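Let's sit down with a protein and look at its sequence and fold side by side. Once you have written the record down, we can walk along the chain together.
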Amino acid sequence: MRVLGINAVFHDPAAALVVDGRVVAAAEEERFSRRKHGKRPVPFSAWEQPVEAARWCLRQAGLTPGQVDLVGYSYDPSLVLPPEEMGIDDAWDHLRTTYAKEAPGFLADALPGLDRDKVRFVPHHVAHAASGGLAVSTAEPRSVLVCDGRGERASHLAGRYDGGRLDVLAGQRLPHSLGLMYEALTAHLGFLRSSDEYKVMALASYGKPRFLDQLRAAVRATDDGGFVTERIDWAELAPRRRSDEDWTGAHADLAASVQRRLEEVLLDLARWLHERTGDRILTMAGGTALNCVANTVLHREGPFEEVWVQPAAGDAGTALGAALHVAATEGEPLEPMPGADLGRGFTDQEIERALRTARLPYERPADLAEAVAEALADDGVVAWFQGRAEYGPRALGHRSLLAHPGRKANLERLNDVKGREQFRPVAPMVLLERAPEIFARGPIPSPYMLFVHDVAPQWQDRIPAVVHVDGTARVQTVDPAGEPLVASLLTAFERRTGLPVLVNTSLNTAGRPMVDDIKDVLECFGATPIDLLAIGPFVVRRP
């Protein structure tokens, strides 16, 4: 069975394809359109479909739209309530439902040959849940926790998967939403809501949670598996910041307070869920699951032995979840998600042809890992473009910007290269076998960079570029069995420097999506002070 998954209504439009129970492709529309997050999450944009992502997924599998058996669409308009009942203060919110109802026709027009009657509406939070509970590599029963801004009428789902069937145990109706609360704080702090929440998480490490008592009164779990988020007057706690203003201690303290309260409520929700399931494994999805600090608190202090987070936990992941849900509903046996590298890749011939067309001098070293390790050991900044692109917001060694972690100045240097705020951290990638001696109090392996770890005291001065202000790092572990080229690079770098760690941040500049195809990376290389481009088996050096 061939099932296409589509996410389109809010933000991060994406497509995914599941064939005979196997995930063969998944990609976000932003990587094709070069518009960050694909579009803004306003009602007027809900008609836009991830057409280029869907076309690519089908081409990747050698299929035409007419060969698709079913389509899962990650929003069910029949579940929507009137805006006033959901506490939604937006006179145009009804457009989402109007456009969603017409989505089968939109898709059939954009993908000629697709039968509009094959489109199945999948509830938004069910799609999120499936992206975790049906993608994890285990057959044992597993709990699932979804938290985000909003779906049709809710902002949260707690449930359990046993085989391919989801048992929903709790959900939280709007207007109460942990995700919308965090989005509102993001806007108050001068960042772009529904986009820059990760900046608030980074800023929180610079503050103290001195507003926690007020937040505990307004935001709290309930005894039915849900929660309450009362209206908060943010200006009473810290002044509103304009985007062009410097942040202050009050802003950092407010971020720290909301971050801590989010962690506490998520812990309450996880404990309630575990009391009812007794499961060993918790799977997570929804935009809140991209909060790697909160994920680590759940891992350390929560009742579950293992926490697995979908690497495309935001709305992009609902495309995959919708496809998996529809396939499971049809009785299709499912294979686990094979990894996050589900996007576009290019042959050596395609890459070399593009380099020649661009008239760039390039070479093909006998050992790519050794050549790149030499440049990194010499403190060069390297654009690393290898294999298939990642699905989700994390660069995991396929579309990455790499640097020497032992040079503290490289944090400021990379933030300058990318045009980012200087309070933002960069992350380490580390050989799996070496990770336990360097990084503590976080899950290992951690292949998707979705948890933070404490950096061992004896290593903090050795890899200062990747140590955040609170002594933590958002780690990606590299298993040679799954990522042999990246593992070889790390090994070659350690041989030269004694450090089995590299700085790994996403290959993009501020406000732009991660590079995805060859043209993107050549433009990025040409416009930024990157010293070396490693693209396929070739290297291009800065003159």
Q: What stands out?
A: The chain has a mean pLDDT of 97. The longest strand covers residues 154-162. The chain is about 35% helix and 20% strand.
